[in-house]
Amino acid sequence: METLRQHIEQITSLADEEFEFIHPHFTKKRILKNQYLLHEDDDVKYEFLVLSGLYKVIFLDDQGKEHIIQFAKENWWMSDYQAFFQETKATVFIQCIEAGEVLASTLETREKLSAEFHKMEHFYRLKLTNGYIALQQRIRLLLSSTPQERYEKFVQLYPDLLQRLPKRLIAEYLGVSRETLSRLYSK
Asked: In this structure, are 102 and 34 located in the same domain?
């Protein structure tokens, strides 16, 4: 649980007694490679903080083609946030790419901790805001940039993922073919 405390304290400090109250609200789960944490149409009970491993958040279009919305690595959060906050069925899948561990927490936990600790409300608000900003930047990049620009931005933002992800997943995330990615990679 020390990782959780360090993660929260990147934004706000916690007294020992505050953390002693907070940490039991999170459940550690071991996730195997290729295991799904969430399937389309599941009830979305949890959001997850990645402790270790690598995950992808995907949706399938009407033709069954997979589209990667997000990768999630250590210290990143993931869920189907629309379904999580609206308490509806999942519209995405979350699959483990590299085995690891996550901390799971519920919407009830989030609401309780936010109500009882202004520090946690501040923490969650900043995490959600930063996630929204990242998503908006990703959409803008997909809509208004060339494959070369998307690739360069990916390399700039996530250099470690180049070594951890198969090229086909990077290509899928960037919205390019595997062949196009190979050409961009060789430049």
From this structure: yes
Dist. CA 53–CA 80, nearest whole Å? 18
Q: Which two tokens stand for residue 5?
A: 């405390």
Question: Which residues neighbour 147 within 8 Å (Cβ) at sequence distance 6 or greater?
Answer: 174, 175, 176, 180, 184
The per-residue pLDDT for range 45-83, each reduced to its tens digit, is 999 999 999 999 999 999 999 999 999 999 999 999 999
Domain membership of residue 140 (yes or no) is: no
Q: Which long-range contacts (CB under 8 A, 24 or more apart) does 61-70 make?
A: 66/172, 67/172, 68/169, 68/172, 68/173, 70/135
Q: Cβ distance 111 to 47 under 8 Å?
A: no
Confidence of residue 98 (pLDDT cuts 50, 70, 90): very high
Domain with 111 in it: 2-126
Asked if 148 and 184 touch (Cβ cutoff 8 Å), the reply is yes
Q: Identify whether the C-beta of residue 107 lies closer than 8 Å to the C-beta of residue 84.
A: yes
Give how far Cα 80 sits from Cα of 38, 48, 58, 61, 73, Å. Answer: 8, 10, 10, 16, 16
